Records
---
Amino acid sequence: QSALTQPASVSGSPGQSITISCTGTSSDVGGYNYVSWYQQHPGKAPKLMIYDVSNRPSGVSNRFSGSKSGNTASLTISGLQAEDEADYYCSSYTSSSTLKVFGGGTKLTVL
Amino acid sequence: QLQLQESGPGLVKPSETLSLTCTVSGGSISSSSYYWGWIRQPPGKGLEWIGSIYYSGSTYYNPSLKSRVTISVDTSKNQFSLKLSSVTAADTAVYYCARLLFTSFDYWGQGTLVTVSS
């Protein structure tokens, strides 16, 4: 069982917006602004899409945005495109001895 | 452009030690701004952080693996390495090396599948 909880799957049609949630505790997501989001296409390495809750690395489309409220972080993808179909993982720093935890992943299907 | 490349055996016998090396190119592993880490992903499952190392040799390990993990760095070769002892089938996974910028992994290797089987 993953330390951070994500929905197993979400779906949306091209052009729509979707949001993926990532729920933790006050020891991780809620306690620090150190939430990251990764995109992983089949057979490929994960790619950093959002860091420190809401910051985009250079080169990442502004259709991707991140936010946080309490113990839940969210990744929103607007203007869905076929190429967005992938698995998405959240991650957070944690004050527990584990230091770094991941969510179980969410499979995004573009209908 | 920074690149990371994992290397090592793709098949390890149960109870033996898994050994992987990550070679960094296009940048220095001795940069004071970064840690370097290992992450694994069992087939069809999610990501698990294994541990991280600074160029000085300072390490942090996932407590669930700490008793079996050793991560080391060789700055002269621009490489860092992972050793995982007493492996079982549960350690079968794709192993990734990555650069850690504060709390996010911003550059990843392509990953290498390690199968534990006799």
---
Amino acid sequence: SQQGEEDPQALSIQEGENATMNCSYKTSINNLQWYRQNSGRGLVHLILIRSNEREKHSGRLRVTLDTSKKSSSLLITASRAADTASYFCATDEGLTGGGNKLTFGTGTQLKVEL
Amino acid sequence: DAGVIQSPRHEVTEMGQEVTLRCKPISGHDYLFWYRQTMMRGLELLIYFNNNVPIDDSGMPEDRFSAKMPNASFSTLKIQPSEPRDSAVYFCASSFAGVGEKLFFGSGTQLSVL
């Protein structure tokens, strides 16, 4: 079953604009991760935010987490055509001995046009 | 590091045939996950291993599905007999407990059952 629901399902913007994607989840989490998937490829990890963190930055990425609302957002600033991909949030169920059992959301398809 | 390696990249088979998907995780990773991705159901966790031992196979849809990990560098997912509804992209992912907790995905196997 899917833990996260992403919004919007699809987003089309112009190069240079910012893209914001939202993720809502249902149960308590240890951390939340965002992944990117290019067409026909596997998922690539972008950023991880822990449950005790509220905001995190990595290059042009900014992630926020609101555990009271069980929601997260991913902001991509100054988007580029190469950012065109699907973006997934994933919530973790920590495993005994470490490691993650991730449940993925439904994804947002981002298209960045020139 | 070559990353997670999956084979074959594409598989087309007829209903009733046996299908075997293969995965080589990143060396040193002690967790291995099998996911299935479809348009209707998104990314679903099928099974995961820790140190070659199957820990949770609750996501395996039916007895037709089986997975093995005979050693730390190889895992298989087998479907016997295959059915058209098994058509999907199957991903293998690995992770190293306690370091980053992120998953590294392979490029996937696109399975089509006719």
---
Amino acid sequence: AQSVAQPEDQVNVAEGNPLTVKCTYSVSGNPYLFWYVQYPNRGLQFLLKYITGDNLVKGSYGFEAEFNKSQTSVHLIKPSALVSDSALYFCAVRVPASGGSYIPTFGRGTSLIVHP
Amino acid sequence: EAGVVQSPRYKIIEKKQPVAFWCNPISGHNTLYWYLQNLGQGPELLIRYENEEAVDDSQLPKDRFSAERLKGVDSTLKIQPAELGDSAVYLCASSPGQGRTDTQYFGPGTRLTVL
């Protein structure tokens, strides 16, 4: 089955330190991968997407995604974490559905906690 | 540009009662999604619309859940009767199309509590 996996339920990092939120994927063909962030009592907000090209994709709020085809991963990174980055982060991929369309499939999420 | 609008934001009902959620997508977005999100989990797709047509409703519990998107714009998701296990956040999202690279935009969600 085509899917994404987020191996860590929670990531803790000190403010100012670099952060990494991991995501691995299992898809056929070219992977099209998305990252979303969810703050408490809010909907998901789009951060970035990897389509093709450079292995480093820039997104919103200073986040980037590092794509690695050999490791089938697309980790979310940020050079210097802020307390305000504390939130729930979701990796997603669109999997083929009937009629040539694609259904978004989400990982279970990783809670990022940035300590002052 | 207005984002995806959902109402109500919160709803508390007793089991066996009916409940309805409303969603207005971003203008011009043809594809609309309803998701269920349990605490600490990722969104799970319930139903997907392309304009007014439901193109994927395989995960919708049809014995109690129903949805409609009349005129291909706003949409309503209904539960009747609600059960305790339906307590969750119901998210609506829209995208310009249903292609592989289309970005989804989410509303704030409706938090349902069934007592």
